[in-house]
Design brief:
This protein is an all-alpha fold. It has ten helices and no strands. It has two domains: 93 residues, Orthogonal Bundle (Rna Polymerase Sigma Factor, Chain: A); 116 residues, no CATH class. Helix 2 packs across helix 3.
């Protein structure tokens, strides 16, 4: 079965997800039988048995309980493009990481601009001055560049650079080989750099040398070295 874009659909998994969204007891039981072990295995990477149990409850709530009476539960967002296991694992990873951060009292959850704040061996004085002078505008332009990416690319960047998932982790999550994960992440990184350069030129009164310094900052944060196969 294919969608309108010609992509292969996982029809049986889509039917299961839709039944779960409607709250069909048999479907929920089938989901637990098929995916509870995956949820536990994924969450186990981040904490103890008690942590795993808490994450599993959060996943069930996120997937099967509607946030608003007028909206369907999150499981309804699955469209059958790609395996349901990848969808479930992505939800589990994000919830586990959020919970781990909360338990560590790092409640100021990382935004996309945190990609610019990760250590890179120290900024030179010129670059530090630029960051201070244009801090708000800089973050706004970078956020707009991130927003210009497609959902899969943006999420892959967040998971790899902010959450620390390896290329092998991303491969399991999205059904990619490790080389494919490396190529896709590199392509998204380059798209982000192009969009950032364009927005910086449009929004900030930077000289060519200052613009180059800013872009060196971003490249140092998203260095090709971190795309090494791991």
């Amino acid at each position: 079965m294919e969608d309108a874009g010609g992509q292969s659909l996982h029809s049986s998994e889509l039917e299961l997800a839709q039944a779960c969204a409607r709250g069909v007891p048999e479907a929920l039981a089938r989901f637990d039988e098929a995916y509870a072990p995956l949820i536990a295995l994924t969450a186990r990477r981040f904490g103890s048995a008690d942590f795993v149990s808490e994450v599993a409850q959060l996943v069930r709530r996120r997937l099967f309980v509607a946030e608003e009476p007028s909206t369907p539960p999150r499981i309804a967002e699955y469209r059958g493009v790609g395996p349901l296991a990848g969808f479930v694992q992505a939800v589990t990873v994000r919830l586990a990481l959020n919970l781990r951060k909360a338990e560590s009292r790092h409640l100021d959850a990382l935004g996309d601009e945190a990609l610019l704040e990760t250590p890179a061996g120290g900024d030179d004085p010129e670059l530090a001055a630029i960051k201070l002078r244009y801090r708000v505008e800089f973050k706004q332009a970078f956020a707009a560049a991130m927003a210009s990416l497609d959902d899969a690319g943006r999420n892959a960047l967040r998971l790899h650079y902010l959450d620390g998932l390896t290329l092998a982790d991303l491969g399991r999550l999205y059904g990619w080989s490790v080389p494919t994960a490396s190529r896709r992440l590199a392509a998204v990184r380059e798209a982000l750099m192009r969009a950032t350069r364009t927005l910086m030129k449009e929004r900030l009164q930077l000289s060519p040398s200052e613009l180059d310094s800013v872009l060196r900052l971003i490249e140092s944060r998203l260095s090709m070295d971190s795309l090494a196969v791991t």
